[in-house]
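Predict the 3D structure for this chain.
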Amino acid sequence: MKPRLTPLLFLSLTTTVASLVPIPLFAQASGPMQQTRPGPVNTNAFGERSYSVSGRVLDEATSQGIEGARVQLANSMGISWQEVYVDFTGQFRFTEVPRGDYRIIASAAGYEEARETVSVATGPVSGVFLHLRPRPRQGFSLLLEPLDVSQRLIPKEARKEYERGVEKLRADKVAEALSHFDKAVELYPQYASAWHAKGAVHLLKLGQMAPARSALEKAVECNPKAAAPRVFLGAIYNADRRYAEARDHLLEALRYLPNDGLAHFEISRSYWGLQDVDNSEVHIIRAHDLAPRIPQVHMMRANVFIVRKNLESAVKELDEFLELAPKTAPESPVVQYVRQQRAALAARLETASAKP
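Done. Predicted structure below.
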């Protein structure tokens, strides 16, 4: 039986366009509304009870739940006790929380972090709302190349709608762009390029996984040889832990784009999730050669080095990640945790070298 791989860190995949979805690395993976790594629950000599803390994470602009948002419960010393990833309702719930003062920290791709302080005393705490403010969007730089088998089959009006959508994206008018892409596929349901554009916008600009998946799957249906939507689907399926489906899409994508660094990175994640370290290593080496500026490539390599018991190389990869990662606030949970794990690995190396 193959040993179960247990990664240690949480991170977000950063492409040249935008963050995609949380990726569990170096820690036990977690999914929507699934509690992970609960901290110790203490009772005193009088048998004091523990309680629950619940609430919602909402978009400040729309008051809608933010699917995939990460919520942490930290004690007064700033140590994280529990964390969850929420579903589309934005609801979270922590259980077995002892009495005391806590900070609830919510974060999501494309949003500024939000925090609330709560006190747990004599009963459950509910109705905690964290409103995340969307970050200002940068210009859309994704190359929307033609993906259709025959450009001549695309009706003139559908093509115009697609081109208007691309123009709106360049002006960062996302809602208007989606409206034009919707019209394009209504006029020509086999319009692979328009379906791909819809999926990319939902995924990279809005962080909406379900509509992104649907549109990208339609793009692949219209043109099975289109590699770009398969790469994005691989990332989505990896995030959903549907590793076999992700692998199949990515293998097909690599038939047509054998030198795509992001595709090699994502399929390395797929094989890792399938407990296939050898193939994961093959592809992360290739991703490192092709896309060394993607910070998470170094995270994945660190995972492999740890399994291979090469801690010195793992530390170097984490240093590369910390050098390349976007400059976030010092309290960023991702960067802070990476630094902690890097320090722990370095300490193990120092201890080992000190032994006679």
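Confidence is low (pLDDT under 50) at residues 1-46, 137-141.
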